[in-house]
Design a protein that fits this description.
Blueprint lengths: L5 H4 L7 E2 L12 E5 L4 E5 L6 E6 L7 E3 L5 E5 L2 E5 L5 E7 L4 E7 L4 E6 L4 E6 L4 E5 L7 E7 L2 E6 L4 E6 L4 E7 L5 E6 L5 E5 L4 E8 L2 E8 L5 E7 L5 E5 L4 E5 L5 E6 L4 E6 L19 E3 L15
Length: 310
């Protein structure tokens, strides 16, 4: 799949778009999925499998994240939109540099971490829309997937296939492992410190287990249909995965067995599960230590435009 033109993705930013009156209502376990080929954030009810539209944006919704108040944040174009839970008003929270990809919320800092795929850096943004800092990881080409849990920050580099771990406040990242270059998408961490990532090309989800100061990787789930940038690990360590090639979302138990597959989702890419937040924060992964250390730098604003092709 091709990312649409950058200019087509830029929202008509400063305008607030009023939605229906009253707070939007979600049930525990509801799955929100970006429609990579449209403008909708889709809501999947896991009880009956029904798919509906929660909200539509001007361009294409990409990364999704909730804050502790239940507000939804949506990566679109070059910035982040906020969908207010109390008012159902969609507004532009932040405009950055470069086409967006993954988005994560860190409850420990109350900050958002938004991946600029176009700029190959991460923009840390507070909930008032202020840029806190730009984060770059040396020797990467196309940062894409991101997740935060218990102060841990996980990042996937689409271009090189490398997966990194660090902290939401730290100054270095360690190399966890690598999957297929130009096909490495979503990444997340479970409550035991195991790190998971989607390989779009091989149709696999990999698990990297802490071992001897590093990580040992192996295939955890096989036979997926183009697993994209949607991966969410619940308190029970279940995995919710977007399968772009099947227009489906699947939920897997902590032992890797299939719990449920839901069809009828349009172009499923990034996703987030309403829990409302993971109550088990997960372990704090130590500073990389004996892992390969990579310095945290300040990223300049890139003028080139890169578009992933899946």
């Amino acid at each position: 799949m091709h990312r649409p033109s950058l200019f087509a993705l830029i929202a008509c930013a400063a305008l607030a778009i009023p939605m229906a009156a009253g707070a939007f209502a979600l049930n525990p376990g509801d799955i929100l999925i970006s429609n990579h080929g449209g403008s909708e954030v889709q809501r999947l009810d896991p009880v009956n499998g029904n798919v509906s539209t929660l909200v539509s944006v001007t361009g294409t919704p990409i990364g999704l994240a909730f804050d502790t108040g239940g507000n939804l944040y949506i990566n679109e174009g070059q910035g982040i939109l906020k969908y207010d839970k109390g008012t159902n008003i969609l507004t532009t929270l932040f405009t950055g540099s470069g086409q967006r990809e993954g988005l994560a919320f860190d409850p420990t800092s109350n900050h958002l971490f938004s991946v600029s795929f176009g700029g190959n850096h991460i923009e840390e943004v507070d909930l008032t829309g202020n840029l806190v800092r730009n984060i770059s990881i040396p020797n990467t080409t196309n940062l894409l997937g991101i997740s935060a849990r218990g102060g841990n920050l996980l990042v996937a580099d689409y271009g090189t296939g490398q997966i990194f771990t660090g902290s939401t406040t730290g100054s270095s990242f360690g190399l966890v492992g690598a999957l297929t270059p130009s096909n490495t998408y979503a990444v997340d961490i479970d409550s035991f410190g195991n790190i998971y990532a989607n390989d779009f090309a091989t149709g696999q989800n990999w698990r990297f287990t802490p071992s001897g100061g590093g990580y040992a990787g192996s295939v955890f789930i096989a036979g997926l249909s183009a697993p994209a940038n949607g991966l969410s690990i619940g308190d029970d360590n279940s995995l919710t995965i977007s399968e772009f090639g099947a227009n489906a979302v699947s939920v897997w138990n902590s032992d890797g067995s299939l719990r449920q597959r839901y069809s009828g989702i349009q172009n499923p890419d990034e996703l987030v599960v309403w829990a409302p937040l993971r109550t088990n924060p997960g372990p704090t992964v130590p500073e990389p230590g004996s892992l390969m250390l990579l310095g945290l730098g300040v990223a300049g604003f890139a003028v080139s435009r890169r578009f992933r092709q899946d």
